[in-house]
Specification:
183 residues, 7 helices, mainly alpha, Arc Repressor Mutant, subunit A, globular, 2 domains, Rna Polymerase Sigma Factor, Chain: A, single chain
Length: 183
């Protein structure tokens, strides 16, 4: 696969489709790595779409002499994903409704310690999943966070469904080992 701009012969739509088919998995992986613990599946897909719109509209800025098309697409994907992460983080930090019946009352020490323990376990789990590496991390996230089926994951990652199942099995075993050592 060469690192040139998609051919524009035919139509703008054809060039856009070539971009998406060529870099779709790459962009999805970048966005997922930034938004995986925060954004919904819809948020991630929206961000991926935004990336391709920006890449296509900025194509005149790309010069093969300055760098590769993959690097150009990757830098736009990373920047867009970070922007989306900030936006989603802000939305989630403003969540206390004014008419909530618990507003104004302090949580009990039991609630606080339980919540702290849950946060620690959640962080350990997330760090353990991130330590798996590619594509195992993506497979686990797609299966358990986004509730995707094996066939859908296989298409997204360019693997066979059997390979996805086997890698998932090995990744779960590795996660079990990591988590049992830490807890």
């Amino acid at each position: 696969m060469t690192d040139e701009m998609p051919e524009t012969c035919g139509s703008a739509r054809n060039a856009y489709e070539q971009l998406v088919s060529r870099f779709g998995g790459y962009v999805y992986t970048i966005v997922l790595s930034k938004l995986g613990g925060l954004g919904s599946r819809e948020d991630i897909e929206d961000c991926v779409s935004d990336v391709f719109v920006e890449v296509y509209s900025s194509m005149e800025k790309f010069s093969g002499e300055k760098g590769s098309l993959r690097a150009f697409v990757g830098s736009i994907a990373k920047r867009r994903a970070i922007d989306a992460f900030r936006r989603l983080s802000y939305k989630q930090s403003v969540t206390v409704p004014a008419d909530d019946e618990n507003t104004g009352s302090l949580p009990s020490s039991e609630d606080t310690s339980r919540q702290a323990e849950e946060n620690i376990l959640r962080k350990k789990l997330w760090d353990s999943v991130k330590s798996l590496g590619q594509p195992d991390r993506d497979i686990i996230l797609f299966q358990y966070f986004y509730r995707m089926q094996t066939g859908e994951i296989a298409r997204k990652l360019g693997m066979s469904p059997a390979a996805v199942r086997k890698r998932s099995q090995r990744a779960r075993k590795k996660l079990k080992s990591i988590l049992s050592d830490e807890i």
